[in-house]
Structure formats: C-alpha cells, structure tokens
Request: fold
Amino acid sequence: MATRFPSSSSMAVPRSRKRQDGEQRIGSDARCMGLRLMWEITSKWRKAEKIDDILDEPQPNFNNIKRYYPHFCCGRARDGDVVYYEQVGSIQLQSLKDMGLTIEELVRHYIFTTEFMWRMTHPKTGGRVLTVFDVEGVALSDLAGDAKQFLLKSMSLVQNHYPERSKKILIVNAPGWFSIIWKAIRGWINEETRKKISILTSSETLSGIMELVAEDQIPCCYGGKLKVGDGSKDAMRFYSPQEIDMRQYVEALNQRHGSDKTEVPMPPPGLPPGSQPPLGEKEAKGQRVTLAVDLPPVYLKASYDYPNKPWSVDGPSGLPPYTADDEDGRSVSVSSSTERSVPDPPSKKPFASTGNLAHK
Reply:
C-alpha cells in the first residue's frame, strides 16, 4: 500500500503561531536595534568625555573627596562580584565646596572610581556590582540643591552608560519615614533599575546583604564578620583591601603627573594606634601597581558595558572586530561575538608605588 504523506495544507503552521513567531522576530530585531543605539550613544559619550583616558588623569583631590564623600568597595559577593558601599547620610558636600570643588569635579571622580572598578578591581567578563546605599542619618535636605544635582548626575551615568553592571541595589538602615524620601526619588530612577532595588530597615540589613554576600565578607559594622582596622565604618571605607589598591594606584598616578592637593589630615581614621594598614588585594598577591597607560589597549576596551549580552572589546555582537597593537607591537584582533576574560596585567611595564598615602 502506498505511503500517504500529509499535504502541504495540513502541515501549514497555524496563523496564530505565525503571528507569534513574527512578533518575536520583530521584538528581537527591535531589541538589537536598541542595543546598537545604546552602544552608539555610550561610545559617543566615552569619546566626548575622554573616558578611555580617565585612569591616566591625575586625581589631585582624591583624598579630599574620599574623606568627605564616603564611598568604597569592601569584600566580595558570593560569586566574586564587587560590593560597593555608599554612606549617603555622611556625605559632606559643603566641606568639599569650601575646598573649591565643583559638582562636575565630583562627577568626574565618580566616573574615575567606576572605571577603576571595572578595569582594575574587577576586570571580568560580565562582572557586576552589588551596591549598598547606607541611608542612616539621611535627611530630606540631602535631596535638595547641590546634593540633588550630584545624585541625579551620578544616577544618570549609571543608568545610561553602565546599565547591566548593576546586580542588585540595597538601601540599608532605612528609617521608618524613608518612604517619604522614596516617593521623592523613585521618579528619577528608570523601571529596570527600580526592579533591582530593595529597601531594608536596620534590623533587616544583615540578612538582606547575606542573601548575596557571605558573612565573612560583610563588614562588621553592618553585622558581618569582616573586620578591618578598628572595625568602624571609617576603617572599612579607608582600609578595605580594594580601597588600599585604589589609593596606591592614585598615589602612583599623581606622582607621575606631579599633582596632589591633599588638604585633609593623613592618615585617615580607622586604625588602632600603632597598627599598620592591611595589604591591598593586588599587594597580597605580590602584584605591583601598574598604571592604565602601561597596559595594552585591549585591556582598556574590555571595560565597556552594554545590556543583556556577553560583552567583549567591541560592544554588541555584529560590530566589526576591534584591532589593536598589544604590548609587543603585534596586531591583535578580537571578535565581538565571543565572550572573553580580560588578561592579567603584563609584568613587563610595572610602575611601583613608593608607598601608601594611607599611612604617611
């Protein structure tokens, strides 16, 4: 008996299925177009603001800003990602203004520390950051004037140019009336970012952080077991291993450019009398300070970020491969379609720091 095959009409895909497939393709195409547009916007911003060169810019007010604007990296998330803390209620913008610093200079410092995080502290494909905003002591006045201007500009930078770097945002030590502040600021935050935010009271802070960070990686001032110096918030923000790394880098950078305007007393508070600062992460591994200018270009390009894709040196998949000269002058071509880990910094061009400003 002859085998009967179904007719083409009986094999036809239902119209609803065709429509669904078509909508998915359109959605995918629109998503790709959106990615490319976002990448082009960020690329133009990086070029106009010379972001690729920012780690080569001297930071003469680094210590002044760090003293009056408490922000720091400390510990690691369970998956190795960076944990960034900002003590919003302790920012002293007026003290920085009295030193002659402008909001634009503070924003530039913020970009510097952000780029340092991705190129030096956590140069990893797809690396992200857990952000902890400590709002203990915050007041409604902190959302007005210069404070509001700085907050808006820094938030705009993160949302527009580092969108997928954010793993989660925890607002900790929130007072009972924080809902009033939240109503004021939530409109400044885009929907995707709002989905990542959790607001925690002081009693919820430790358990909230522990969902993503092991207890021995949480500073003891937040209820964890990680103790640096005298265990205070000052000790954590000045002497965490990641902060030691950054301060040593900035010291070497300023020495190269002959530029340092430190006015605050040094060393910073947080160490018991007679004790020495802990080693930085890189210092503990026997690595010396290497400035960004001494690294190959491909190492710089790996800091770029764009949403929902495994990133590489070129941005979204489909862009032409990036070609650069490596440290030996050879031509290096890296495909934008493959995920890639950043190489270790070369040891052939080290710039050794002569010391740590923290204990001078």
The two ends are 96 Å apart (CA to CA). Strands lie at 71-76, 82-87, 129-134, 166-172, 197-199, 322-325, 331-334. Residues 3-11, 306-360 have pLDDT under 50 and may be disordered.
